[in-house]
Write a structure and sequence with these properties.
By secondary structure, this protein is of the alpha+beta class. It has a domain at 83-184: Tetrahydropterin Synthase, Chain A (2-Layer Sandwich), CATH 3.30.479. The protein has helices spanning 9-14, 31-57, 68-76, 115-123, 125-137, 141-144, 147-161, and strands at residues 83-86, 90-94, 102-112, 174-184. Helix 5 packs antiparallel against helix 7.
Length: 185
């Protein structure tokens, strides 16, 4: 049983008449052109996004001229661990305006550049302790009881301790003075 396939009436309408002029039939825009108009900007946008991501994820900082090898060597060498020197606690009389004297007991640790500075600090400990005691005994409790006062005191101590010690320790060798204890009575 063979079915008869009816003729498609739309196929006849779409086919141009042989004796009709071609200008009368409206030309439908091609689908490829519409698809191209969508895909081309999309491809450009994705390409720009990928290029931007690549640019920002790259290490694109150029080393200064002549230091290209030094920059690579600096990346390869891990950072040195910090070196600390603990000093014995200090107990000093503070300047006082009131009738009762006040005392400061403070523990200090010095953060230094390297192990050679540790030996120099140990060698000159009496001189360093003298500098610290003279500086601390000139302070009053109200000057050093606040956080800002303690930070200012730490900076003053670093400057005082960081002065050259008989030519053996350079001034920049003391990186920081850290409080390990701080009691005002």
């Amino acid at each position: 049983m063979a079915k008869s396939i009816p003729k498609d009436s739309t196929a006849e309408r779409k086919a141009p008449a042989k004796n009709a002029p071609e200008a009368e039939t409206p030309a439908a825009p091609p689908k490829k052109s519409r698809l191209l108009k969508i895909l081309l900007p999309l491809a450009l946008l994705l390409g720009a996004a990928g290029g931007g991501a690549w640019y920002f994820l790259q290490d694109h900082q150029a080393p200064p001229p002549g230091k290209a090898g030094a920059a690579k060597a600096a990346k390869a060498v891990p950072a040195k661990p910090p070196v600390f020197v603990a000093l014995e606690p200090f107990t000093v009389n503070l300047q006082h305006d009131e009738a009762a004297p006040q005392y400061l007991q403070v523990g200090l640790a010095l953060k230094v550049a390297d192990l050679t500075i540790v030996e120099a600090v140990k060698l000159h400990t009496p001189e360093i302790r003298n500098r610290i005691l003279l500086l601390l005994s000139g302070k009053s409790a109200r000057d050093i009881s606040t956080v800002a006062g303690k930070q200012a005191l730490s900076t003053e101590l670093a400057r005082e301790i960081g002065q050259p010690l008989a030519g053996s320790v350079p001034a920049a060798a003391i990186n920081a003075v850290l409080f390990t204890s701080f009691v005002i009575q």
